[in-house]
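User: Could you check the structure of this?
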Amino acid sequence: MPVATLPHPLAADWAAHLSRDRRRSVHTVRAYHATADRLLAFLGQHWGGAIDARALAAITSADLRAFLASRRGDGLGNASAARELSAVRGFLEWTGTASPRLRGPKVAKGIPRPVAPADVIALAEDVAEDAREPWIGARDWALLLLLYGGGLRIGEALALTGGVVPLGETLTVTGKRAKTRIVPLLPQVRIAIEDYVRQCPWPLPRTEALFRGARGGPLDPGVVRLSVRGARARLGLGERTTPHALRHSFATHLLGRGADLRSLQQLLGHASLSSTQVYTAVDAAHLLDVYRHAHPRA
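Assistant: Sure, the predicted structure tokens are below.
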């Protein structure tokens, strides 16, 4: 039976620390705050008393296993349970409590599947053509080309403001933990964004969102995902063809054309090289697929 989650001041303090001191994204803070609230609510029922930082010092691996079991009862899979455990460990460490030793659930490391360049263009064209107004079509075309041409996360693209105009040969992008990086801007992408800016019926002040929704507010990423979902169904593309898959495709195609991992790490804004190395597996998987289909003895 799901544990009732009640707001807890200790969890709120941790969320404030993540936002203020660690510069975590709004989504990460919200998710980690919810995990801490769930843990504290569970322990309150499990131990039968009020929970504070001092009480947390008594937590054991058996308590954590019981908490994860309760979350499994809520329908959590391995990947979600692993993220939950990671958040719990971070929360306990922040309170000064040593996290009990507990092996997390095994999670298969997913390999991003790139979208073929021709399919990227077809997808962007379909989304643009399906738009209800020409300026919205220009916006969607520019946005999807930017995700693929610059390797941006959708949140990074939607965080751009009117201050990026007029465009140059590069774009300054703010990524996770407020880290900035320089991304080269392909001429085709620059032209597409400039065309959208010309057609956009809303003013684009330097401090406000560059990509606007139909009513003039900041564009919601859910709107973009819904449009891509419709286009991929019409084009017969796989379910993994998402806005984020365009970033994976950017990385994989650069690697396949000789880009080194260090440069790719900088372009993607990865904090560590290990995050970028997954793309070597993508490229190897592609080569193996080509070999199996082309070699007469395969």
